[in-house]
Amino acid sequence: MNRSVPFNDMARIIEADRAHVWHHLLQHKSLETVDPRIIVEGKGMRVWDAAGKEHLDAVSGGVWTVNVGYGRESIANAVRDQLVKLNYFAQSAGSIPGSLFAEKLIEKMPGMSRVYYNNSGTEANEKVFKMVRQIAAKRHGGRKHKILYRERDYHGTSITTLSACGQPQRAEQYGPFTPGFVEVPHCLEYRNQFPDAEDYGLAAANAIEEVILREGPDTVGALCLEPITAGGGVIVPPAGYWNRVQEICTKYDVLLHIDEVVCGVGRTGTWFGYQHYGVKPDFVTMAKGVASGYAAIACTVTTEAVFEMFKDDAGDPLNYFRDISTFGGCTAGPAAALENMRIIEDEGLLDNTDAMGGRLMGNLSDLAERHAVIGDVRGKGLFCGAELVSDRVTKEPVDEKQAQAVVADCMAQGVIIGVTNRSLAGFNNTLCLSPALIATPDDIDQITDAIDNALTRVFG
Ligand SMILES: Cc1ncc(COP(=O)(O)O)c(C=O)c1O
Predict the structure, then answer these.
(1) Are the C-beta atoms of residues 245 and 225 closer than 8 Å to each other?
(2) Residue 142 alpha carbon to ligand 1 centre in Å
(3) Mutation pick for ligand 1 pocket among 262, 265, 290 (CB with most ligand atoms within 8 Å)
């Protein structure tokens, strides 16, 4: 039987979707009057919808995921070959792609050593939280169990990762939350909370030390940070910040967990975001770009020192990481991730990200000269944001409906961009751009031309 759906059956697809699919992050009332958006096909930087309309995708699948672009037959073939050989076995045993990808990944992460496979960014972060709690229980009489997270950062959608959520709108109505999570201040210099400080980077990092001292250093086990905050407004940390963060962690014996779910695997022009700053983490988590969405895979990566803590007392029957992720044993993930990494290396995509990121930042800065509504332009590599304000002096954010109107206008022009969304009340005003790492100069210019037109139409 031919199960493929011919294009002229699209009305049926739309009705089936409307009748039965519960979409992510969507208030469904709107679908009573408009059709759900169905994306049918993708190639390179472009996707086509149910009406056959072409879009240039400037957000890599909506949520900064498809790093190497759509339609990669070599990844599809690698996954297919692996699936017919062995699709799955629980990760309590090893697999050929699992071993090979772990080896290749660790080559890119000097100082790191062990890869724990799972399925989503949320899960990867949750694994770290469990490890930190187990280390506290085993080594610190349960005291050093608190986990610090930063205002504006996001680490996932489960109740415990929402307990570590610096974006209040994401967490609202989902409590009560897991105890033992404590917030530290953000580090967005554009919205400087320490105006009297001579060195903003130092002041923002020292604010973390203050929280540790207030809570008691013997109660704080770990600090969890995004290297560059994504959905909280594309926040590139200020100069000096990361050095001081590292010093503070060392001083108070606080393990450093870097959430690379967005920045990991090339997005900012290095393999990992933290590598711009010379930081030495204890844990690194990653998901979205690891296999560019060709298969579900996430990794929790640790140092050998962390790993050793779970094996050094074999006499204690509980002293190992008693955790499983069923689909962490799917072999499609590491098979796709291996080929994804080969593509990034062979096509020189880190260099391209650096060059095209520079062009994107340059174009956005040019737009800021002509559109007073752009208050700040931030980014690294192909990960950029433009914060929209109604007044450059007071920095009053634009109404989020206006920011969304810019996104809608770009969409009408056939360019998909993003905006911070249900994240911080009153501050969902940063346009987000994360095109695939294969972007060309023409693609970048097409993206910023669309934003230029949209800003003119929405703000005059
Ligand atoms: C920084 C960060 N961490 C974690 C997550 C959660 O990842 P997932 O949606 O795969 O669970 C996200 C998702 O956007 C993210 O941006």
Answers:
(1) yes
(2) 28
(3) 262
- How many CB atoms sit inside 10 A of residue 135's CB? 19
Q: How far apart are CA 114 and CA 110, in angstroms?
A: 11
Q: Are 65 and 290 in contact (CB under 8 A)?
A: no
195 CA → ligand 1 middle, Å = 31
Q: What is the mean pLDDT of residues 402-416?
A: 98
Q: How far is the CA of 156 from the centre of ligand 1 (A)?
A: 5
Mutate which of 288, 300, 383, 421 for ligand 1 pocket (most atoms within 8 A of beta carbon)? 288
**Separation of CA 45 and ligand 1 centre (Å):** 22
Domains recognised in the chain with CATH numbers: 37-68+349-459 (3.90.1150.10), 74-346 (3.40.640.10)
Query: Sorting pLDDT into bands at 50, 70 and 90, what band is 5?
Result: low
pLDDT at 4 over 80: no
For residue 156, the ligand 1 atom closest to its alpha carbon is: 6
Cβ density class 335-348: b for 16+ within 10 Å, e for less:
bbbbbbbebbeeee
Q: What is the mean pLDDT of residues 162-176?
A: 98
CA-nearest residue, atom 3 of ligand 1: 155
Location of structure tokens 């699919």: 21
Q: Is the pLDDT of residue 1 over 50?
A: no
Task: Note every long-range contact of 168-172, with CB atoms under 8 Å and residues 24 or more positions apart, other chains counting.
Answer: 168/424, 168/425, 169/422, 169/423, 169/424, 169/425, 169/428, 170/422, 170/423
pLDDT in tens, 31-72: 999 999 999 999 999 999 999 999 999 999 999 999 999 999
Report CA 163 to chain centroid distance, whole Å.
17
